[in-house]
Write a structure and sequence with these properties.
Length: about 325
Amino acid sequence: IKTIGVLTSGGDAPGMNAAIRAVVRKAIANGVKVKGIKKGYKGLLNEEIIDMEKKDVSDTIERGGTILGTARCPEFKTEETQLKAAEICQKHGIDGLVVIGGDGSYRGAQALARHGINTIGLPGTIDLDIACTEYTIGFDTAINTAMQAIDKIRDTSSSHERCSIIEVMGRNAGYIALWCGVANGAEDILLPEKYDFNEQNIINNIINNRKRGKTHHIIINAEGIGHSTSMARRIEAATGIETRATILGYMQRGGSPTCKDRFYASIMGAYAADIICEGKSNRVVGYQHGEFVDFDIEDALAMQKTIPEYQYQVSRILSL
Ligand code: ATP
C-alpha cells in the first residue's frame, strides 16, 4: 500500500475531523501517502481529491462537522457507478480507502473492496446505531449538546408549570433518547424500540405527577417516533396542562467534539490507518468490551443491537 484515501460519508458527526486527522498522521507515520476525498462518494466520482500532509489537519481536532465535507450519493448503489469509482481510485494511485460513516457508507466500501480497492470503515454517527461497536464517533457530543438544551427547556418548563415534549435525534434508534432521558431526569422516555403508542399512559402519568406537586413534566421523544407537535396538542387537550413540543434537530449534529469523541476518534482513526497500511481490506473498526477491534464488513452489517434491557428498566424506575 503506497497511497490511501480518506472520506466522510452520510450524516456528519462531531469527531469526524479527529478521525481524519488521525488517519492522515498515522498513515504518514507509517510511510504511506494520504489523499483527502471531498464530499463522500459524490466527491470521489467528481474526482474532488486533494493531497493531505500532516499540517493540513492542524487546528481541526476541535472543530465540529467534517473538513472534507460529506454527501449522500444514491447512485453509488449501482454496480456501474462503483466500478467507475474504483477506476478513479486507480487513476489517482489510491490503493486503499478509509470511509468514515454509517452502515450505508460501509456498503459502499464493501462494493469498492469487491472491485479491488482495499477499504476500512470507521463508525461515524451520532446515533450509536452501528451494531458491531459500543461506541460511534459523535454520540458523546450529541448527547451532551442535547442534555444541555433539555436542562434549559426544563427551567422554563418549571417556571410556567408546563409539560414539555423534547424530540431528540437518533433515526430509528433510541440511544440518544435513553441517555438524555436518564441524564435529564425526564418523566417519560419514548424509545422507538419500546414505545407501545399508548398515549393514555403518558396522560395519566402527567395528571398523577401534577397531583403530587410536580411543576413540570419532561417527555423525551425519539426521532424514530416523531410527531411531537401533534402529540403535544393531544396531551394538552386531554390534561388541560399547557404542553409544548421542541424538536432539537440539527443542533445535535454540530459543535466542538467532546474529549471522549476526540479521543475515541483519534484511536480508531489511527487503528484504521494501521490495518489499511498492513493490507487489510473490507473491514470495519469497532470498540467492544474495552478494546478496539475490527470485523469483516459483511459480518458487521449482519450484527444486530438494541437498547440494553437493564438500562431501559432502570430508566423507567428512575423517571417516576
Ligand atoms: P448515517 O446514517 O449516519 O447518516 P450512513 O453511512 O448510514 O450514515 P447513508 O445515507 O445510508 O448514511 O449512506 C451514505 C452513502 O453510502 C449513500 O449516500 C451512498 O452513497 C452509500 N451507500 C448507501 N447504501 C449503499 C449500498 N447499498 N451500496 C453502495 N453504496 C451505498
